[in-house]
Amino acid sequence: MADYILHCMAESGHSYKVALMLQLCGADWKPRWVDFFNGETRTDEFRTTYNELGEVPVLETGGQMMTQSGVILDFLAEKLGRFGWENETERREILRWTLFDNHKISSQLGVLRFLRTFAKTGETDTTKWLETRCRSALAILNKHLARNAFAIGDKPTIADFSLCGYMFYEGELGIDLNEYGNVAAWLERIKSLPGWDHPNNLMPRQATPGAS
Ligand SMILES: N[C@@H](CCC(=O)N[C@@H](CS)C(=O)NCC(=O)O)C(=O)O
Asked: The domain at 4-83+197-202 falls in which architecture?
């Protein structure tokens, strides 16, 4: 059995954050596909066995189930000794960007993409409102990355893996990230890290109609 089992699906950008970390660290890990689109995360069994919060990703290791991508990344940075912090100030910077990501970037990009690509709601007041909020958060990140190669300075950390969770699903967001030049350049820097791979290659994906 692998050291780490990641309960996930490729459509999940939150899961990708963890898959990317495991992959870049060369960890001994395997994905277990969660049938999210048929409601597995809403079943009593999933919530009892894996995650009472009813979400992926779940990292199974040493008989424990760990949830919340930010917590899992923090755990893995310590455990695997990579992409973490060198002092308490850096640790808090990582936490600051991870919280910003969870609140303003991944959560909003994830929902916008879900509505456009999977629920296919068409353009509604809700998608327009969400796009505005996504663009506002992306502009903040873009400005920050004008002065920093990565989220907390000149080296990649788990904060970058959190922030980029939904940004490699080309064509599914309905926002062209090339409009944010510093974000696009930062994504290229992440892509060039040894071992980088696309979410669809790291985790199983259901054949979701309309998705690329
Ligand atoms: N803050 C959580 C968010 C996780 C999350 O929203 N996961 C989605 C899939 S990408 C999910 O499982 N949602 C289940 C639901 O909303 O019912 C994390 O970073 O792990």
From this structure: 3-Layer(aba) Sandwich (3.40)
